[in-house]
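Case study.
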Amino acid sequence: MSQSIKHLHERFQKLFPAMDADNPSPADEAGTDSREEAEPLEAEAPAAVPQLRCRRTEHAKAGYDLDLAVEPQQVLEAAGVLDEGGFAIDMITGIDWPDDNQFELIYDFLHFQGPARVVVRTRVPRDRPEIASLSAIFPGANWHERETAEFYGIQFTGHPNPIHLLLPDDFQGFPLRKDFKPEPDPS
Amino acid sequence: MMELQPVHATGPQETFVLNLGPQHPATHGVLRIKLTMDGEFIKDAVIVAGYVHREHEKMGENRTWAQFLPNTSRIDYLSAMMYTHAYVGAVERACGIQPPSRAEYIRVITSELNRISSHLVWWGAYLLDLGGMTPLLYAFDDREKILDLLEALTGARLTYCYYRFGGVLEDVDDNFIAGTRAFVKEFRPRLRMFRRLVSENIIFRKRVENIGIIDAEMCRKYGATGPMIRGAGVPYDVRRAEPYSVYPELDFEVATDPAADSMGRYKVRMEEMEQSLRIIEQALDRLPDGPVMAKVPRVIKVPAGEYCYATEAARGRFEVRIVSTGKLIPHRIRLRTPCFGNLSLFEEAARGMMLADGIAMMGSLDLVIPDIDR
Amino acid sequence: MTTVEPIRLLLFLVGAASFVGLNAAYLVWVERKSAGRFQRRAGPTEVGYAGLLQPIADAIKLMSKQLIVPPGADRFLFRMAPVMMMPPAIMAFAILPFSEHLVAIDFNVGLIALFAFSSFNVIAVMLAGWSSRNKYGIISAARVVSQNVAYEIPMMLVIITMLLVSGTLSLTGIVEQQAGAFWNWNLFNLAANPLMPVTFIIFFICMLSETNRAPFDMAEAESELVAGAYTEYAGMGFGVFFMAEYANIIIGCALAVILFFGGWHSPIGVFPGVIWFLLKLYLLIFIVIWVRWTFPRTQFYGLLNLSWKILIPVTLFTFLLSSVMIKIF
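After joint prediction, the assembly is written out as follows.
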């Protein structure tokens, strides 16, 4: 399986040439990831603006094998590649970073043949949280996106059924945002 | 006089909406399914979840790392051990804590006991869904012995909070070891009896064989794991695919069945109980001496970063992702529960089935509603 | 006919009604107790010795409960359905010969009358499901009707076969022909039909299905339809259905005893006939209970397939076979 992770790694590097944060030009063909190949996991500085990257991580340390950070509009493409590669949708995680005024979205994929988990992460601005829905590729993303949408207020464009899943239909607010204040108990 | 309308088989089809739940004997909890029925056939199914939503993930952001520990056992109350294991494992992975070997073996033994008890509840409840009432009591008879063993060890019967960061709460005593050995010995013939009693029954087989086909491709698209994917012939088991604890040292087989129907999932779970017994036996034989707790700081502070840890719970892959900013409380705890993915495909799979078959399929998903709603 | 006759009839009807009531109550106890044994538990123990007073406690509870008519239901039919359920069952007992002399009316077309009465409960269950305006009830009503139509046919074919063998419609007449030792029972009357045991098994399956007992309890498949046609019934409305279910089981088993097991005739000849009749009856009822707590429920189309594709052809074959055998011998 590590073979195919390597293959996937190379493919993603071609697809999304790695870029520096201050020079986010997708046309940069020369960009090969300088930190590639089994680089030990460094604790990711959470407050930093995420760098677009594609790197291998040690499963025993992070819990996944390939870490891919892309632009929001590239998520669909990455998911398409993973779908071709026979990956399954695992989960979608939203994280609120109020200091950066951003939401982080982490899409996890797993492969049924062996220890291969791929993480695709992206960030959307907090004041205009919009991202394309994966439901067309992975119908299982439907529920995960509904959940993330109701908890964070992120809009998944093209979602077939954007209604609340776990919260009541008339619930106001987004409980997993850090600035969420629950309504005081009427009693 | 009223005009009688002739019934045309090809005429406009009348449908009606049937509310299965939130209180219904087959949903085993407060789950609601809005079925659009064409006679006895399900035309469309919409799942309305969230009746027992407690927002565990938000609770995680409001308490310290250790205080969240009891929450994890209340998500899937039938396989609490494996859920606690995932959370404890994530924090240990983050802090670089290596629990002593004895603790790891104890974790494996208790997890597998918990898996058997969870599968027994499923077995009884599934037969109840199919109208056979007696197996439930047989299953609970054996489950009771497991619960007694675990109660003596952990103090809880269902919502165990036994695993701690760096090990387990208490060492096992001789009574537990002897009791577990006795249980393994007497449960094997019982399992064979269950097979003779139920698995070969012609009515049962007619109810489950070729009913509710969920193939590997569908599992992949929806992220269904556990007995669902193994029942579709794919040997995916977190214990083997992403080895954790001391599972790599133990010899067991990943139960699979190529049938992909309800019977396939049934057989996988029955075989898993058998394999769990094997694991317990081996783990008991190899149980090393030593401490059951590593040296762990009194107050856990997880270094900043993001860590995942997955375990094979009774219903499939359970995964915890923790995001820390180095503070006393987590920044984010994400719980990936198996039933969430397993149920999400119901809407597609149930289309076109008959009501009773739909129930037979839903039972084979082995739902625990708090696990979906969290 | 003297003036004694109406009094005798009245006494028999009162007797039949109380027999049904007492049996329904205590068969529930037997069912719960034996279900307990099948499931490795004790069953009712609290009320009275070994829970013997439990049925009475249950009856008091059911009677003291409010009868709720759900909004939107057809009030008249909703109330009528339980009422329609019980009388045909009690009437049927007037024809059943418990022993040589213990029979209210010795009809010469007893078999047909009994069959007519026992088929009546379908209408009651259907009305109950339909009038309660509950979707589960309506599905259940539709199921009950198609199930009963499907199983009436093999049941009829079995009865016609038995008519060929016995040549009379009178229940007493049928029993009288099986007098003597147990090899005279119709079940072992292999000269008339070598497939007699098969015929009996088909009769038993049809009987289970007609009385909506597990594994054919489509009407109140509780894991699918909650309680089916009885979902909206509370208190004694439900209680009457419950009693009628047991009354129908008794009738079905009694019919089996009369048709196949020589009625009140003793295989060894020690006790009076009525004891042998009840013994055989309760043994069959016990098997019905046993089946319920052992097997899972069948699927609905499986049930219909069983009737149309297996039972009806087989009964037709046994029917033809008996005709030929009787003509030859």
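Observations recorded in class. The first strand of chain A starts at residue 53 and ends at 56. Confidence is low (pLDDT under 50) at residues 19-49 of chain A. We will return to this complex in the next lecture.
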